[in-house]
Fold each of these.
Amino acid sequence: MESEIQHLHSKKHFYSKVLRIGLPMAFAQLMTSLLSLIDTFMVSGLGDTAVAAVGVSVSFMFLLIMMEFGFFSGLSIFFAQYWGSKDIKNIHKVFIIAAFIGTILTSLFFVLGFFFTDTVISVFNNSGDAENKAILLSYGRSYLKIASFSYFTMSITFLIGMLMRSVERVVYPQLVNIFAVLLNTLLNYLLIHGNLGFPELGVQGAAIATLISSFIGMTLLVGYVLISKEEVFKIRFRLYKDITKEFVHKIFRKALPVAINETIWGLGMTFYLIAYGFISTSSIASIHITNQVMGLVWAVNAGISGASAIMLGNKLGENQLDLAKKWGNWFMKLIFVAGLVFGVSLFIASDYIASVFDESTDVAKDVSMILKVFAFYVPIKFNNAYHIIGSLRSGGDTKYALFAEVGPLWLVGVPLAFILAINTELPLYVIVAIVNIEEIMKLLLLIPRFFTYKWVKNLT
């Protein structure tokens, strides 16, 4: 027994567990980011306006993803802790609640994206160039009307993947992600430019490729759950009758701040794009390309922070509070080193990355400079994400995480973006550098909170 305890406290055990859980999660994020990046890369041959149109459509979908991520990751606190205490019945009840929420959100965004397409596109389309605005609207309409159907498949995939990761079944979802990315790449190649005898559909082809690949990915995950012999995946939907008001209140008290956090953060990122749209259509394209590239960098952060949420949540659920505290400190050191390494790497590679896209000189220059700006902020952003997604959230300290995330973003970042974009002639990368000061403010709020250890709580 004593040797087992020593093993749990060893760094070798810690890092092996981080790799076992975090690596597949990082890979999942990498595949998801590649899915969007490949769309952007292949559409870039159609010009800046086409890239901007896809960027606007993806930003609308991103808001849905962040809302669902907020709810699902908030609920996954309980997936992880109930798994730690082997309470399968309550895992199923939480899953039913998550499925209900996902259905409502997805239906709402589908209605907006499919029936009010022009309105959605026009919110972002604020540059003074009437010709470009008309082209962007046409491209955006072609993409969004088709892509909106993929919201349903992505929502189901997201929820099942979140459950599987929370109960440490991480390999199969990653295999599905790899297959979906490869399939999407092939379909993009065939449908955007009409290769191998297929019709040349442009941005519409990119949307069709996304819809087909996401549908097949969802089918593979649903099939796994249906044939699995593990009790945790045999969701007993009849348990909805056992969901009491007290249970819902308990769940939502911790999950709702997370959902609000991610929703308002996603809305903030959306407002950034709206603000930059006042500069020019090419600014939208530059920000969209940069965001897709940064998605590859965030994959590392997603793996470490995601692993921390699960590992710390499991230990808190097992009531091993001292071990959770020790692991929390080890994660903090790990995330700092990772942020430093990837920040330096991004700075060095920024010019080459920008040159890969078939874009105008102005867009390429902006992409390169914005990536250099983000390279400076990567260690800070990594640390902030770890505390918000990992340490604080794992123990239910979600209200403070909400305050630390939302306050700097909406009181500093978003107002600065609009003021500078509309009222100054500053280069786009300079505006981005100033706006991201909000990340430094978050850091100053989150680190002291972590060391109070108020997040070290067993919620079950």
Amino acid sequence: MRIRTRPASRWALVGVAAAVAAAAAVSAGLAGVSGTRGDPSLRGVSKPVVVATAKTASFISAVSDTRRNRVYATWSISFSNNPDTRVYVAASTDGGRTFAKPVWLARDNGAGQSVVRVDGNGRVWATWTHYDLKHEDLLDPKQKYSNPSWQELAYSDDAGRTWSRPVDVPADHGLRHGSAFGALAVSPSGKKVSVFWIDYLPVFDPRVKPAGRDAGTYLAATSVDGGKSFGPVRKIVQTGCVCCEPFGLSLDGRTALLFRGWQKATVKHDLRDIKLTVAVPGGGWTAPVSVHDDHFLLHHCPSVGPAGAVDRAGLLHVAWWTGATGRAGYWYAIRGTDGTFGTPVEIEAHPSAPNENNATITLDGNGTVWTATVGHGDFAANGNVDTSPNQALVYTITGSGKPRLVKAATVDGSYPQLAAVPGAVVEVWANAGRLLARRLEVR
């Protein structure tokens, strides 16, 4: 059994990811730049290029290597006629103008939920959830809740053309029973690498007394030798949202994790606000603090996690969605030098989760914050599926703190991700069975 990429019910988590076609093609070069309709943030917007053909691609992740003017995108796909699931990564070495042919990571037929990061030396890192299809078939039907799955980690030293042999995380086979929604944090030197994942076994295993009706346990393993070996698995959070992808990053020289928490609130509802925890010496983690006390009550899977970006001054910028009564929408907040979060700013009001993907946030060379969401959600907070057409919306936030819609960057599609490069912000999104990218040329 596997975590769904498109939950179809209140907390439908297990099943094959709902994508339908393999990634394939290579993109062509950017041809021309369109007008910006007077937007003060942009000099122009390039025409989209096709990164890959990937129908209903899910878990899109994008990152930039600003020093080398490179962009990397990764995504998950599956097939309608067999249980295979795969992850691909595509690289641009010219700032998002063109993308190389996608690479099928590790030639893995049981993979999903990939994440990509870059360290200060230009090494590209990717982690994904591996599902052991062979052993899953051999499980006793009564043991199906203990689906064998774990995180895989690989890196590339040649701009994503070739990749190292994957490392299993964790190495202990006894802990490979219910891994999903991996996250990754890499130090600037590349020496320290932390892989996170959600253990969803307590939700389904009748032998384990659940910590909560919908709660998963957040785990991590850290390498201090550049990913060659990993230390013991550490429990970070006892109860967290079991269906929301966390976000790993480096903060104040330490490893940090943004995630959607879980706390029992009422008989019928759980509390699912965004939290931050930071690693401390000795392998421990700070008590999670709320980015904001939205008081988001729910007993379903919103299936959307937060995103964070750290600026040159060390301030953490966070974007997230909440379905909290009276404030449902997409929000933004800054963590100050004193470690506390300021008053959040509403970016876009909508009552349904923007997509089954993390939020996205990046900062351009001018220090302007860029973030993106969709005009409405794929899944409402009450679990109903929203199948109407969607648009990816891009916003900028400057020193004034007031979000501005970048109208010239609006496109049809979903799952938007942003990555800043010198002179531009690269927008990556999915639409009509293709993964697309374009440059938003910054003034």
Amino acid sequence: MNDNCPVCGLKYEIETGFFWGSMYISYFMTAIIGFFVAYLDFLVVKDPPVWQIVGCICIALFVLSPITFRYSRLIMLYSFGSIKYDPNAGKHKKQKSSF
């Protein structure tokens, strides 16, 4: 993740260690994903062995780890960072092109 927004220049990390709290959000998201994948495994295979359930959960979490990483930081930023989305924030920088 960038230190600053490439469009408007906003600094994402409000204070040192601000995104450490996103680890808890990420943990919650991965727990939900793990339960959902295990439930789907039980629906598809009626009585799966434990190694199959653990394998499916590990594969799903490995594939979805970039998504959980990014969205946990976004949830932390929007919930506790007092940052609001402004669609017009980067328009003045786009007009100052050197082409």
Amino acid sequence: MTNASEGKVRSRKLSEVIAAQLMEEIRNRGWPVGESLGTEAELMAQFKVSRATIAEAVRQVERYGAAVMRRGAGGGLVITNSARAALSRTISTYLELSNVSITEQYEAAGLIETVAAKLAARNVTEEQALALRSAAADIAASQDNPALHRSAMELRLAIADVCGSRPVLLFMRSLARVLTHYVRPDLRTQYRNREFEHGVIADLSGVVEAIVAGDGTLAAYHVGMDVARREQRARELAVAQPLLEGGPLRRETPNKLAERVAYAIRDDIARTGWRVGERLGDEAELPERYGVSQWVLRQAIRILEPSGIVSMRRGQSGGLYIGRPSPDHTIETAVSYLNAYQAEKKLSLDSYLQVRGILFQCMAQFAAKRSTQEERERLLAAARDDAKSDPGEFWKSLAEMGRNQVLALFAVIVDGFIVQNSNDAERPVDRGLRVAIAEAIRDGDAPLAQRRVGRYWLSAADGVDSVQD
């Protein structure tokens, strides 16, 4: 095994730079769904590049879920989705590609859905309560397995909508994409279990009735039962992870061939243990392995490269190498989507501040239980070094130490958005609190770490009283 590719910083390709500029143009225009950014010929002239480069940049924008290239009169690169829809697709795509475990997925679902239920119990109107009851009744009346699962997820999203917290709804949508599209629906349909289905109906009915009664604690209890039941069933059927079989393509979705090849490569990497730095092959042998042209293979690789999953090296020892997944590209894109969404809706930052506090309190608990002693000492040393310590890096490190890629990603996205859109960019908070948090984590004291994180973000929130123009 060679580790030649590990640790190298990948420079962005011209197509990636153009894709980023197209995304910026969409944001600057106010994300007008239905408007065209220009035809292929117009974009080639605008950026002074070849058809191949523009086509590659367009495919990246399409993967972001922001726009699609349409042919014919009135065509061009047309903005097709809202910032919210594009955000959920960006996050869910990274989670699908980056080897997120079933435990991480359902642990994240448990936290986000619990927050949604508690807030809904506090904020629901009588009209909304009746709508939730009607939705729960529809689930109970479902005649087949797919309809039940679809209606159940729609109800969970409706609860997130009622809760009044935009970030909760956005993250719920991202998780819903992963937990309903990434899993294998064929197994869920083939192996029906009426006891499981009746349990789902009872759990969700309990959530709804608790919300109607305004009992957030009881609603959270039923959410916990629902998530635990779904996770157990997913494990029984092995539906929450792809079939890690080598060789030709096996996924029915996504539809585009290059995307299917990308997922097949990702599956082969996971199947062999995700050995970072190992060479997978070169452009001469890989097309034959996956039964596609060299051109399709290159497009597949470019789907995986921005997330650090693979890297293509040239020269004597060249070829495709396994990388270490990095959320940086997804975080940058997600924050830009949130900025566009914020500019469109003009919402208060209060809900974002609340969710940030909840996420980091959770990650502090996990870090105190799951991190290594070396990581804890390093975090404490960084917190004590006021002259060199970057608060953003402190919180990112803490989130990573929690060993849940989903929640860590959510936490860093929300924090990055708040810093860009508020007056607390300098974080005028007692830095001694960061040291106290790191000390609690070092000592493995999860409750104290949670308490101190809560105090920190409460202090930070006091300084966030407006949104930048």
